[in-house]
Amino acid sequence: MAVVLVAVFYLSSVFKISWQGLKPAVTSPPENIAEVINTTGMPLKLPAGFSISIFAKDLIAPRVIKFDPAGNLVASITSEGKVVVLPDKNGDGRADSEITILSGLNKPHGLAFKCNGEACKFYVAETDKVAVYDYDKNNLKAVNMKKLVNLPSGAGHFTRTIEFGPDNRLYVSIGSSCNVCNETDGRRAKIFSMNADGSDFKEYARGLRNAVFFTWSYVDGRMWATEMGRDYLGDYLPPDEINIISLSTPKVSGRNSIPNFGWPTCYGKNIHDTDFDKNTYIRNPCMEPFEAPSYIDLPAHSAPLGLAFVPEEGWPQEYWYNLFVSYHGSWNRTVPDGYKVVRMKLDAKGNYLGVEDFITGWLTPDNQALGRPVDILVQPGGMMYISDDKAGVIYRVTYFGDKRKE
Predict the structure, then answer these.
(1) Dihedrals phi, psi of 52, to nearest 5 degrees
(2) pLDDT band at 256 (very low <50, low <70, confident <90, very high)
(3) Which of 16, 128, 200, 363 is deepest in the core (most CB within 10 A)?
(4) Claim to verify: residue 19 and residue 72 sit in the same structural domain
């Protein structure tokens, strides 16, 4: 090394080459570049042992992503009114093509598949309804549309997300029509469930301003949901939330066991929103068992969307039972916040242990947003996919540990 440095300084003096210009070529990397592999072209940072690449690009704001029964990635392109399939026929980790299987839809968002043997149904949630199609996994076609239920549409939050729960019922989240208000439509700011044929449509949870995404813990079967708090209370209030929806709320006189998470009157850990609610009460309107508190308070305006539990197979042991959450990012905060994917540390019983960043770099030091993560799909084998409705891509994240160094 000493000989190299002598030569460098000699060349610098002879050819007047600056040390600043030569330094990147002759010095060792500041870290082991094999620890993280990033081929996205963005300055994204991940923990050591992970790689990130672009699975599909040149999409128009992809939102919900799912795998079809044949293993093809399917995405809702909400702003374009269509649903596309992104097959990877050669298995190289990149989509070979973009195939539109549905178009002309009314802001399609939620997607779900349900198969009985070889016969598969494809469920799509538009802003005004949930419909089901016969799905041809061999020819990649969705046909024979049948509307299951009408949903409220119009002003306010327009996304509708659907998922089948462990009980084989289909769940749908419906956001509020406003930032903060008393709703006139009893279906707003709630989660409903129904049978697979659309029958027995009934309320499951209420007081959820905009719980865009939800999922179930594979440990105990409880539903967890992300929740976006209201705007215009400043940079730090109210918190966005992660809620455990499947709470055992005791029956109270005049009420049933449907959990109420408080919006528009309450937020966070049962905090009364006195900026909106000016009424005088004999008792605190934001208290258990009348209102359910948030489980985890998140930074205000971080805009949590997709969430997914980490399985054991193929993932580091310290990640088991944890929850990945995408922070879509703020739009009305003095200093932008969010624009990242975080790891909520949980133990095997779901107890919250803390949070740490998992993927950052979408927000540049000068507060320019390169991307906004939306949905998250986590698979066994150390694989995950993330949609980005600003960059127009779907990322593929892989855990490889120390395999690349062997």
Answers:
(1) -135, 135
(2) low
(3) 363
(4) no
With beta carbons less than 8 A apart as the criterion, state whether 359 and 397 touch.
yes
Could you tell me if 121 and 96 lie in one domain? yes
What is the C-alpha separation between 254 and 110, in angstroms, rounded?
Answer: 34
- pLDDT tens for each residue of 63-104: 999 999 999 999 999 999 999 999 999 999 999 999 999 999
pTM over 0.85: yes
Residues 54 and 163 in one domain: yes
Q: Classify each residue of 162-198 as buried b or exposed e, where b means 16 or more C-beta atoms within 10 Å of its C-beta.
A: bbbbeeebbbbbbbbbbebeebeeeebbbbbbbebeb
CA distance 79 to 58: 14
**Enclosing domain of residue 7:** 1-30
DSSP string, 323-358: EEEEE---SS-SS----EEEEEEE-TT--EEEEEEE
Residue 111: name the closest of 75, 138, 145, 60 by CA.
Answer: 75
- Position 283 scores a pLDDT of 82
Q: How far apart are CA 13 and CA 4, in angstroms?
A: 14
Side chain identity, residue 249:
T
* One domain for residues 26 and 45: no
My answer on whether 168 and 307 are in the same domain is yes
